[in-house]
Amino acid sequence: MTEAVYIGLGSNLAEPLEQLHEALLALAQLPHTQLRAVSSFYTSDPLGPADQPRYVNAVALLDCALEPLTLLDALQQIELNQGRVRKAERWGPRTLDLDILLFGQRLLDEPRLRVPHYHLQARAFVLYPLAEIAGQLRLPDGRQLDDLLAACPFVGLEKLSDSATLDLPHAR
Ligand code: ROI
């Protein structure tokens, strides 16, 4: 069985656009997984300390047969492969962040993984790209994506490109 898994991508170091392109290629090559859709790319004001570069953000949709923690391991490996170094500073800059936003209709509350993503509803840089590829989505806890969007203004975001312009040779 495969489930629809939405991944949030973010980067604000070391050529963020290239980081996201490379991460999408890696997502497309995950085992037991297909990359189904990618949102536009957006630049966004940093959430957290203001003395860091703007971020590039996007959301991808996977059809995934992996278990959530197996997928999490794989995503963290991709982050490491792309030079992610975990620093002590909370909400500091990063080369690549891959967050599991939604995993089918699952509600998970484990030490390593909380799904739906804890900060989903508060982050325009997650909600707007998510809405582009998810449409009328109902979250497993009953919330409607439309309602979350209505409560989250499109502020500090700038749309960069449409996903259709991306070159995703490994996407099927
Ligand atoms: N801010 C923005 N704009 N985009 C992100 O992806 C992002 N990721 C983070 C923190 C540091 C919270 N701020 C962010 O992890």
The rounded Rg comes to 15 Å
Q: CATH H level: which superfamily?
A: 7,8-Dihydro-6-hydroxymethylpterin-pyrophosphokinase HPPK
Question: pLDDT under 50 segments (min length 5)?
Answer: none
By DSSP, the count of extended strands is 8
Could you walk me through the main structural features you see in this protein, from its secondary elements to its overall organization?
Strands 1, 2, 3, 4, 5 and 8 form a six-stranded antiparallel beta sheet that branches. A two-stranded antiparallel sheet has the order 6-7. The model has no long low-confidence stretch (mean pLDDT 93). It is globular, with a radius of gyration of 15 Å. Strand 6 and strand 7 (114-115) form a beta hairpin. It is of the alpha+beta class and 172 residues long. It has one domain (3-161): 2-Layer Sandwich (Alpha-Beta Plaits). The chain has helices spanning 16-28, 68-81, 124-134, 145-150, and strands spanning 3-11, 33-38, 41-44, 55-64, 97-103, 108-109, 114-115, 157-161. It binds 7,8-dihydro-7,7-dimethyl-6-hydroxypterin. 7,8-dihydro-7,7-dimethyl-6-hydroxypterin binds at residues 10, 44-48, 55, 57, 91, 97, 125.
Task: Offer a quick outline of the entry.
This protein is 26% helix and 26% strand.
Task: Describe the protein's topology.
Blueprint: E1 3-11, H1 16-28, E2 33-38, E3 41-44, E4 55-64, H2 68-81, E5 97-103, E6 108-109, E7 114-115, H3 124-134, H4 145-150, E8 157-161
Antiparallel strand pairs: 1-4, 1-5, 2-4, 3-4, 3-8, 6-7
Bound molecules: 7,8-dihydro-7,7-dimethyl-6-hydroxypterin (ROI).
